[in-house]
Amino acid sequence: MKSSHVFKSAAAATLLITATVAQAAPAPVESRFNADTENWRVANLLSLSAASQAASFEAGTQRISTNDLFSWTVFAAPAKFLGNQSAFLGGSLSFDLSDSLKDTTADIFPTLVLQSGANLLAWFGGAPGSTMTSYSAVLTASPAWQKIVGYEVTGLPILAAASSADLSNVLGALQGIYINADWKTAGNDHAELDNVNLVGVVPEPSSWLMLLAGLAAVAIARRRP
């Protein structure tokens, strides 16, 4: 009876540790554009309900691209990035972006926008260069995240501070990921996008040590008579 109890306890501990690891590190979602556009599209941030267009695939560089097609042109992520992505809270969304032209004040525009229904959260990471610029938007509340509550006559967003609850709610029912492809208000700029990665929280070394210690304890318990 004692041996059976130890075995059941060990099995339960193993399941608990496995579940903890799984929850801590959801499988990444990524687009490398090695062969095609991977269903990324180009949309108008100021009219998200309007028809979008397929992004262009650049075979030579294995990137996707777009010219200035709309009043506010953005790259729109495909379905695999959307839905309930609450497991990625605290993780990051990284990508490489370039634009051939930009305003001198382009840093006032958001780099990335997340949508859930009427809720829009903007992340400000600065304007890209004419060669690829790497970004990593950490999915936790910070001054870089702002809630879009409307638009000025000029088209600039009206902003309010985004809370942790705002970010959690949007990730829980994510309907759109939009990466800014329009950094020049007057001019036909050309934007390119590559290496989009949605990744979860990587456990701290101390967390892994605790998990390893737990696994070791399970192994020892199983060996006892």
Automatic annotation (TrEMBL):
Coiled-coil-forming residues are none
**Annotated Pfam families:** Laminin_B
Keyword Transmembrane helix tagged = no
InterPro entries named in the record: Ice-binding_C, Laminin_IV
* Name of the featured protein: Putative secreted protein with PEP-CTERM sorting signal
Q: Which PROSITE patterns match?
A: LAMININ_IVA
Source species, domain of life:
Bacteria
Keyword terms of this UniProt record? Disulfide bond, Glycoprotein, Repeat, Signal
Signal peptide range equals 1-24
Residue limits of the Laminin IV type A domain? 35-222
